[in-house]
Amino acid sequence: MHDLIVLARSGDADGLPSVEAVEAALFGSGRPLLLVPPEPAAAIGESVVIGWNGSAEAARAVARALPLLLQAKKVTLVTIGEDSAKGPMVDRAALYLKRHGVGAETARLPAGGGKPAGEALLAEARRLKADMLVIGAYSHSRMREMVLGGVTRHMLMRADVRVFAVH
Fold it and tell me: Quick check: 60 and 164 in contact, CB under 8 A?
């Protein structure tokens, strides 16, 4: 048994795991997944961005990432659009982290703006110079993400930062 599955980010290059293999790890293992980009980074977990949408998957990802978040120098909870009715607001997530010894800032990005949510989240992670992104994976169905796109699918294909994902 393992605590974490580490896989290279999916892509077009030979030798990288397929999206299906990454999804099988997410859905079939019950473990968090760390997707690593092709280019190695010098640091990991010093500056962490959490993609927060109020879903059960996002809450599980934050809880599973706590040991890493406790060691981070900077943690930022990022939400896109208005707080979701399906889960706690971003300020409550920050309070949860504070109660567990993690000081976290919050950032609210406007919905829309011509960018898909996954692209906006990655752009914010780059702006904040994050070396890891924590997300709840597939808070929408896989079919919806395949047809309409979604944050998880975007990260599987395009993330240039480490992604800690939990379903």
Answer: no
Report the amino acid identity of residue 150. G
- pTM for this one? 0.86
d(CA 90, CA 78): 8
Q: Extract the residue ranges of the chain whose pLDDT is less than 50.
A: 86-87, 144-148
Domains with residue ranges and CATH for the chain: 38-166 (3.40.50.620)
* Long-range interactions of 107-114: CB distance < 8 A, separation 24+: 107/76, 107/77, 107/78, 107/79, 108/78, 108/79, 108/80, 109/78, 109/79, 109/80, 109/81, 110/80, 110/81, 111/80, 111/81, 111/82, 112/81
**Residue 78: its pLDDT value, please?**
94
For residue 148, what pLDDT is reported? 43
Please check whether residue 14 is in contact with residue 38, taking contact to mean a CB–CB distance below 8 angstroms: no
